[in-house]
Amino acid sequence: MNTVTLRANMAESESLETVTEHERILQEIESTDTACVGPTLRSVYDDQPNAHKRFMEKLDARIRNHDREIEKMCNFHHQGFVDAITELLKVRADAEKLMGQVSDTNRRLQDAGREVTAQTEEVIRCRIQQRNMATTVEKLQLCIPVLEMYSKLKEQLESKRYYSALKTMEQLENIYIPRVSQYRFCQIMAETLPKLREEIKEISMSDLKDFLESIRKHSDKIGETAMRQAQQHRTFNSAVQKQVTLSCAKPLYGLNSRTPLNHNGLSAEATDEEEMDEEVLTAQDLVDFSPVYRCLHIYTVLGDRETFENYYRKQRKKQARLVLQPQSNMHETVEGYRKYFNQIVGFFVVEDHILHATQGLVTRAFTDELWNMALSKIIAVLRTHSSYCSDPDLVLELKNLIVIFADTLQGYGFPVNRLFDLLFEVRDQYNETLLKKWALVFRDIFEQDNYSPIPVENEEEYKSVVSRFPFHDAEIEKQQFPKKLPMSQSVPQIYAQVKEFIYASLKFSESLHRSSTEIDDMLRKSTNLLLTRTLSSCLQNLIKKPHIGLTELVQIIINTTHLEHACKYLEDFITNITNVSPETVHTTRLYGLSTFKDARHAAEGEIYTKLNQKIDEFIQLADYEWGMSESDGRASGYLMDLINFLRSTFQVFTHLPNNNNDHAAMSGKVAQTACMSACKHLATSLMQMLLDTELKQISMGAIQQFNLDVMQCELFASSEPVPGFQGDTLQLAFIDLRQVQTSLQT
Questions:
Q1: What is the mean pLDDT of each successive set of 10 residues along the chain, which is 746 residues long?
Q2: So what's the pLDDT on residue 631?
Q3: What does DSSP assign to residue 471?
């Protein structure tokens, strides 16, 4: 019983659970979307066996229940539905009529709207175009400045305005291209700009190379222009200074030159050059420096200025070395020196302009380094080439060029003291060439001289001589014409040439920026060299020449005496030129006195020598017969000829200057010395004949003949052939000979 009951309860319990589950499933089916019903229905079959039958039963019961409800609802609303259908049937006709009207209205509306639609579409299309155009204009407004700047860049490149082109590139890169960088043409443009920069660098560097080549070719013209201007300024300033210092009575020649002055006190050369000065271009007008400025600015903008500076300085150093190389034959003509100086001046004028026109391209230290290097080379070159110069006119022109060269570069701020120091060396070279030239002049004068007193036929000839030589002799002036001056023609010529030498030496001293005292000292020293070395050497050589006889030697003594007296006039001549008083402490004296004294002593010695040589020639004619039985009764013929020669010779000494006591004493001493020397030499020669070792014996007749000859010698000595001997002084020359001869007789 209990078991049945239990089972019944369990069955009932399971039945309730199944019913509950089926209700749930049905609720899900009713509430769930049909697409999701599958899983719900599957759960029915997944349940207990035969559960789906019970579910179907349950489903049928639910359907029936819903059908009943529908039926109830339909019954409830049936009358209203019928009424509605009736109303709808009534409205059908009105609806059809309305439908027709609506269709007609729609048709007419469509017809009317079709045109509006077309116009609307046109408006829309125009609006779109307008919007696109506005957008395009906006974009073009951004692009046009870029294109304009790029076009401007192209124009600047074509017109070679590279610095402006670089500025334009900078604006394009920093301002304009970033605004429209999304466009392809801007990207291409941005990629092109670096290439253009490199192209500009190459072009500007090429222009710089052309410029450097151009100034190398034009340095000569630039230097010529600069030196011409410096010379004109120097000449004008010198002429103005002379005009200020000249007194009212203007001389024909300037104080320190022989350039004739015109009516206003300026030299004709200065006046001409002053007029030409206005027509001369400046050195900067001859060269276009824009390539340097342009290239400098370009490299500065590109941030590569240091490279440009190094390149420029390196190239200019190379050009400096080329400019400083002289031509091998430069010393042959002044044009060679002028071209050399012009090129150097042109080089440094350009560098000075670059120094002041640019900032830092070249520095003062760089130009000073270049100048010091150049100065050492210039001095070495000038020392070498000037030593080859043998023409004093060429050396003088070289000096003038060096002065103008130094003045020109000094005007540009370059130190030139070493050049002026070099001029002292060149001055020595100039003096040497002058001395050589005047040595030839003196030699020609001596060769052309007839060594006889100057004859003057009238007053005009006399004045002509004394105007060229300071000769004053009261006794000669009192004599009637025609008359003779004691010196020969070479004396006034020598005096005039010494003055010409002083003028020539003075020319070198001009424009050396030296004081009058220094110039005076230089003139006196060079004149001393002329007198003591050149003229003295010429006189010594003249005296030693074999064709110069005793008469010529006597005339040379006379000439040197007058030249000696003229030395004080030469000193006055130098004083008048330099305006330096001879009483100045450091004033150098002329050494002409010693020169002419030495020459005179040499001439005197040569007189003694030639007299002795002539005596020897006569002695060689002696032909004693030492074994003769008796004498000829008269002196030997060779001895009489010798005595006659000596008498005529000593007559020449009467022409020696004796217009005052000093000269008389001097001339007497020369004559007495010559006479005494001749007598002693004659006595010695005769003595040697008697004492000859080869002479074995002498006959009495030979002794008597020799005695006659000795007596003639003693008679000659006692006849006072030269006045001034005291007592038997001259006869004492034969005393030893007389004693030997006497001893032979006994």
A1: 53 62 75 67 65 78 87 85 84 84 88 86 92 88 86 87 84 84 85 86 84 82 84 70 48 35 39 45 70 82 85 89 85 85 88 84 88 90 83 85 87 87 84 89 90 87 87 81 86 91 85 77 84 86 83 83 85 83 61 75 82 85 80 82 84 56 52 83 85 80 83 84 77 80 71
A2: 76
A3: -
pLDDT at residue number 247: 44
Q: Which helix (H) or strand (E) holds 483?
A: strand 483-485
Angle (CA) 375 376 377, round 5° = 90
Cβ neighbours of 312 (radius 10 Å): 22
Closest to 457 (Cα-Cα) out of 475, 484, 497 = 484
Phi and psi dihedrals of 297, rounded to 5?
-65, -40
CB contact set of 640 (below 8 Å; sequence gap of 6+): 712
Q: What is the DSSP string of 2-67?
A: HHHHHHHHHHHHHHHHHHHHHHHHHHHHHHS-GGGHHHHHHHHHTSSTTHHHHHHHHHHHHHHHHH
Tokens of 189: 């443009």
Q: Rounded distance, CA 315 to CA 209, Å?
A: 9
| Confidence at residue 261, expressed as pLDDT on a 0 to 100 scale | 37
Tell me how far the alpha carbon of residue 700 is from its chain's centroid.
96
291, 295, 298, 302: CA torsion to nearest 10:
170
Task: Report the distance separating Cα 440 and Cα 446, nearest Å.
Answer: 10
What is the rounded (10 degree) CA torsion for 208, 213, 219, 225? -70
Question: What backbone phi and psi angles, to 5 degrees, belong to 691?
Answer: -95, 15
The answer to whether 438 touches 501, Cβ cutoff 8 Å, is: yes
Bond preceding residue 482 cis, omega within 30 of 0: yes
Residues 383, 345: Cα–Cα separation, whole Å: 19
| Nearest-angstrom CA–CA distance, 599 and 593 | 10
H/E segment holding residue 456: strand 454-456
Q: Is the dihedral of CA 351, 357, 359, 364 positive or negative?
A: positive
- Give φ, ψ of 455 to 5 degrees: -85, 135
- Kindly tell me the number of DSSP H helices and DSSP E strands found in the chain: 23, 2
Question: Distance (Å, rounded) from C-alpha 409 to C-alpha 415?
Answer: 8
Supply the pLDDT for residue 390: 79
* Amino acid, res. 385: H
Is the separation of the CB atoms in 254 and 435 below 8 Å?
A: no
Half-sphere exposure of 11 (CA within 13 A, CB side): 6
Which residues fall within 8 angstroms of residue 52, CB to CB, at 6 or more apart?
Answer: 44, 45
Three-state secondary structure call for residue 231 = helix
For residue 433, how many other CB atoms are within 10 A of its CB? 20
How far apart CA 127 and CA 133 sit, in angstroms, is: 10
**Integer Cα distance of 427 and 194 in angstroms:** 62
- Round to the nearest angstrom and report the end-to-end CA distance of the chain: 236
Q: Where are the beta strands (DSSP E) in 630-684?
A: none
Crossing angle, helix 592-620 and helix 550-578, to 10 degrees?
A: 170
* pLDDT at residue 585 in the model: 46
**Cα 451 from Cα 430, distance rounded (Å):** 32
CA 116/CA 540 separation, integer angstroms: 141
Q: What angle do CA 113, 115, 120 make, to 5 degrees?
A: 85
Look-up: residue for tokens 């920069």?
A: 197
Q: What is the pLDDT of residue 552?
A: 83
The residue type found at 201 is K
